[in-house]
Amino acid sequence: MIQTILAFxxxxxxxxxxxxxxxxxxxxxxxxxxxxxxxxxGPKIFHHRKGETTYTIRLLPVxxxxxxxxxxxxxxxxxxxxxxxxxxxxxxxxxxxxxSHDDSLETVPMEVTSFNFDDDxxxxxxxxxxxxxKVYSVKRDALxxxxxxxxxxxxxxxRQFQSASLGNRMMTNFAGPxxxxxxxxxxxxxxxxxxxxxxxxxxxIGLVEEGSPAxxxxxxEGDRITAINDEPVDSWNQMVGMIQENPNEEMTFEIEKxxxxxxxxxxxxxxxxxxGEEIGRIGVQAYIDESLTSKLTYGFTETLFIIxxxxxxxxxxxxxxxxxxxxxxPVAIYATTEAVVQAGVFGLISWIGFLSVNLGIMNLLxxxxxxxxxxxxxxxxxxxxxxxSQEKEGYITLIGVLFLLILMLLVTWNDIQTFFLN
Length: 422
Hints:
Blueprint: H1 2-29, E1 34-50, E2 53-68, E3 82-87, E4 93-97, E5 108-116, E6 122-127, E7 133-145, E8 151-153, H2 166-195, E9 198-199, E10 205-208, H3 213-216, E11 224-228, E12 231-232, H4 236-244, E13 251-256, E14 262-267, E15 270-274, E16 277-281, E17 284-286, E18 288-289, H5 292-319, H6 330-341, H7 344-363, H8 371-384, H9 390-421
Parallel strand pairs: 4-7
Antiparallel strand pairs: 1-2, 3-4, 3-5, 5-6, 6-7, 7-8, 9-18, 10-17, 11-12, 11-13, 13-14, 15-16
């Protein structure tokens, strides 16, 4: 149980950190102020400020976010709120504390009446028991102390997301999914080297199980299956599919030996019970390609293969109808991680790559509130030559958030029923 929880936190944490680092890095390059880099959601359990950014770990380890100026809401400050101001030697505000605590001789207590941290950089209000409004200038790099103690830097307009060029904003939005694809490529490439090779997609015979139908027919490692029942075989998956569909049925295999000799063998796949379904098997594994080229390219080919499979699944929603059973949320990821843990380090690395590709693709879907939805708005802005108003964009994002929330609730409940109630 504890091992599974730790593995889940590790896998999800790596994927989220890499994803959010993509947004973080390109936002910084574009001159956008990144106020917070958060792992998890909910109450803050740890924070550390370095440079302009506060790094936080929050209670719920089911995601994360990068809080970019102008992209996320400002701190919860409003007229009528009591705050504590810290001033420099020129009476300019360098810190605004929103926490409730006793007055300090080193700070100025104020009941806020108005403020502007975008252009004019000021805060105004009544100080102490004085009813007369007083105005203080605010430094460009002044800090806000939120109610939970998180330190955030204010953001003048030129440091906000909307002030960056369209190209930089698009790159910042795309960088998260891009990093997920890079992580997957690295994970699968590492896996190929650790395993000493990669399973070949060609219909080549690897290890042969002793006493199996393949062993009895004389199949050897390195043999190539060129046809089954006169039907040409082009890939390992095609060969496996044909065998599985014919349990206990005699099949004629055309085999090309490593010497170049071609022979025919009649093999009868034995019956194998796969979760209540009878399928055929002949007792062979895929051939392991140990060449340097195969190891170096495996990260790319496996990532591309998973992307293709995901788009095939998404396409089936339009051709075969949508089913929540085809989706999985955090509960499904946790349940699957429990099985992956049994496979050891290799299983975890492969799982990281698989999930990272999935997260990258899902985030690129043109749904408001996801990276793909933001990119779609960027494209519309490029076509219109002007951005959509913030009010309209807010409504669009709200619709996307509600849709995702409903979908997540449905998927989570379905996962609970599948993995824990059945």
